[in-house]
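User: Working on a comparison across species. This one is HTH crp-type domain-containing protein from marine metagenome. Can you predict its structure so I can line it up against the others?
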Amino acid sequence: MTETNVALCKVCQYRKICIPESLLPSLEEAKGQKIASDHAQQISFQKGKLVYQQGDKFSSIFTIRSGCIKTYSLDAEGEELIEGLFYPGEFLGLDCISFKAYTHFAEAKEDSNLCLINYHDLESLASRESQLALHISKAISSQLSKQLKWAQSFSQGNAEQRLITWIFIISSKLGLVNKSRYRFSIPIKHAEMAKMLHMRPESLSRVITKLNKEGLITLSTKECEVNDRGKLFKELPEVSNY
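Assistant: Here's the predicted structure for HTH crp-type domain-containing protein from marine metagenome:
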């Protein structure tokens, strides 16, 4: 892990997640840059490194500037339970806010750049920069609502519907879902994907083969290409508002 105290908000393409639009001009001034430096610390992780571990004392949440982070927990038998993938423009660690410790592991699946925000400092930030604190709170609430909807979508539907839902959500996270045809890399193994989708690896393999043969997707071990967005997602009206 590498760290820097230099505020990168001024050049970050996802700064509107953390900073209200009305305050963006202040990033050109010394005062605005100091506020950014005070409430966020930039950190980098190489692929395979842990951002935090299950059981670590909770202190901070993170925003992702680049890369991809996988979250997972271990059950009593040591079995890995994959919870999700997080991409640039998303917060990380939100579901640990109400606990005194992180409830899962967070692992960089690609070389990743993050901003660390000390959650306990947000209270003091609210008294000094109420507009900024309110903006962050609303952004956190919005993402938590999306995560809940995501979790609910995987509790219903057959194996094929769950895979298509997963493709839709990852496409949404990457800002690709409105394109008719596109591709994205897959940073996890198919065995990990099967765990995330609550299905056996052989079941996932059969679904991938079926969708590939139908020409809706071209999914390999490294990437997924969506060949026809309209046909692929037409049966997912409840997810279309993600």
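For your comparison, note: The longest helix spans residues 130-153.

User: Helpful, thanks.
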